[in-house]
Specification:
This protein is mainly β. It contains no helices and 23 strands.
Length: 364
């Protein structure tokens, strides 16, 4: 089947663009977030394509103060991957690798937007991440991440928020590859690896540079995916080394209360980034781990939904994957202190012995 994408020189296999390998869990996704530097507003959007499921879905959500407003949308793909609009939500690539626009048309739920992100640096290509459970691929993905600045407006909760590049930083990424999408496989492989997730993601803005840090650990605290990069304005990517994360949790929860990252530059000089997570934003608002709007579910030819939640909602099925607005202090190798703002994302599910977690959702 030919589609609009076939008129662009972007083929990766002898097949038309409508076909993407053989793994039913193949996906291709846009992700965006942004926040005002005072932390009062935090928003995020996602649009995902699942070629083997023939589904495209999207979400747009914004937290104003302590209230989060979530718009969900899903439609049948019809094997046409170049039409990046799902119901009222649309993503436009204005200038590849630099400028993207999100439009949320007026709708009955009172949440709409017209916002544009402009990259602060060239996108960072993260190392390909591959993870298996016995014979089966659990994750095999490539991601590029770019920090940028937002302009435009958002309407939600009866309020209109104007975004200005000087006061609204954020992040966008593109990831593609294989990880679970849609409904669960009715016959999973014989278990050879416990189900456990430990993930921290920290893209952060400082006055003259950006920082990007991420880490996965297994239940014993062994790191299996790690990256720490810095990009000074107008400069190239600098890879930091020997990066380590220290994290404490709020009492009776799996929500981080504070954290610190240490890393070294090429000459062995040490950076320390102290992280103060504040109001939470729940990614279930744009489909992540949402039991009703999980990525890739078949909701019919077109479906649009809406819900609201509070940022102080306890840990549960819709809140186990948060991002938090965070203020940061970076101490550089020469002893200087830099202040910044960022997004502190975490998923902590299952055993993690160094933190005292012994089962799926227990707290010490």
């Amino acid at each position: 089947m030919l589609s609009k994408g076939d008129d662009y020189p972007i083929h990766q296999t002898p097949d038309p663009i409508a076909f993407a390998g053989t793994d039913r869990n193949f996906y291709d996704r846009y992700f965006f977030n942004g926040y005002t530097i005072d932390g009062n507003v935090f928003f995020a959007a996602a649009l995902g394509v699942y070629p083997h499921l023939n589904i495209m879905d999207a979400g747009f959500a914004v937290r104003i103060g302590g209230r989060q407003y979530n718009l969900h949308a899903s439609r049948h793909l019809h094997m046409e991957r170049m039409d990046t609009q799902v119901g009222p939500i649309r993503v436009d690539v204005v200038e590849p690798l630099n400028v993207l626009r999100i439009v949320v048309d007026d709708n009955e739920h009172g949440i709409s937007a017209d916002i544009t992100i402009t990259g602060r640096h060239a996108p960072i290509e993260e190392p390909r991440t591959t993870r298996r459970n016995g014979p089966r691929i659990v994750q095999d993905i490539t991601r590029m991440t770019q920090l940028g600045r937002w302009s435009g407006w958002i309407k939600a909760g009866g309020q209109t928020i104007t975004l200005d590049e000087a006061t609204t930083p954020g992040t966008r990424d593109r990831s593609w590859g294989v990880r679970h999408v849609g409904i669960r496989d009715p016959q999973v492989p014989v278990v050879t690896q416990e189900f456990q997730v430990w993930w921290v993601w920290l893209p952060a803005h400082f006055e003259d540079r950006v920082l990007h840090f991420f880490v996965n650990e297994d239940g014993d605290g062994k790191v299996w995916n790690l990256g720490a990069m810095m990009v000074r304005d107008g400069g190239a990517v600098e890879h930091l080394h020997h990066a380590k994360l220290e994290m404490e949790f709020a009492p009776g929860s799996r929500f981080p209360a504070k954290a610190a990252v240490t890393a070294q530059d090429e000459s062995g000089g040490e950076y320390r980034i102290d992280i103060n997570p504040q109001a939470r934003f729940f990614l279930s608002g744009i489909g992540y781990m949402n039991p009703d709007w999980s990525h890739g579910l078949n909701k019919g030819p077109l479906a649009v939904g809406y819900d609201e939640m509070d940022s102080d909602t306890p840990h549960g099925s819709r809140t186990e994957h948060p991002q938090a607005f965070a203020t940061l202090k970076m101490t550089t190798p020469d002893g200087s202190d830099l202040s910044g703002q960022g997004c502190f994302e975490s998923i902590v599910i299952g055993r993690h012995t160094p933190s005292g977690f012994t089962s799926m959702f227990d707290v010490p």
